[in-house]
Amino acid sequence: MAKAKTLSSTELRRVLDYIATRKHAARNRATLLLTHWGGMRVGEVAALRYCDVLNSDGTVKDEINLSAEQTKGKHSRTVFISGKLRKEVAAYIAAHPMKDGEHALFYTQKNPKRGFTANTLTQYFLHLYRNVGIDGASSHSGRRTFATVLSSKGVGIRVLMRAMGHRNISTTIGYVDASDDMLRKAVDLV
Fold it and tell me: Which pLDDT tens digit goes with each residue over 143-174?
């Protein structure tokens, strides 16, 4: 099976521009950016509830603690949220305020309390990338892009492994693409 495409910043911008023209733009933008800027798996994003992301004062947490039931490997993990990602999630929540902390963060028309399943969100991302014309992109592209961007900025593999929620370093290595630009910068270090 081919690896999901890693998006360039230009391609991510194209996807975000497309989302802005569609229904449910705030929701769809936030779900996408949690994968690209937070490195979250689609199933983890689908499993989020308001209480997972909001502090008691209504502000967005800077760490999301995922329970074992919310993760792929059934191991709890912490997702660290950058300032720019907190702003995106806050903008979404401002547009869709919490009714009940236990409700799904990302509603669907069919089931607003439960929200997306991992499969429906996976299908949404697949259609989204296809509609924008980005071949090879899938629901896993956000995580691969997240890992590659961090690696290109010099983040060490052990930190990256923890940020991705991996338990094995070899899994993390498979997520990082080496672009020509990264190779140019590397040889310039000599």
Answer: 999 998 998 888 888 888 888 888 888 888 87
Please check whether residue 97 is in contact with residue 26, taking contact to mean a CB–CB distance below 8 angstroms. Answer: no
What digits encode the pLDDT tens for the residues 28-38?
999 999 999 99
Judge contact between 93 and 60, C-beta under 8 A.
yes
Same structural domain for residues 131 and 163?
Answer: no
Give phi and psi for 79, each to the nearest 5. -110, 120
Give the side-chain half-sphere CA count within 13 A for 17: 8
| CB of 127 closer than 8 Å to CB of 106 | no
Q: Is 62 a domain residue?
A: yes
Q: Is residue 1 part of a domain?
A: no
CATH number at residue 16: 1.10.443.10
| Reduced DSSP (H G I as helix, E B as strand, rest coil) percent helix, strand, coil of the chain, to 5 | 50, 5, 40
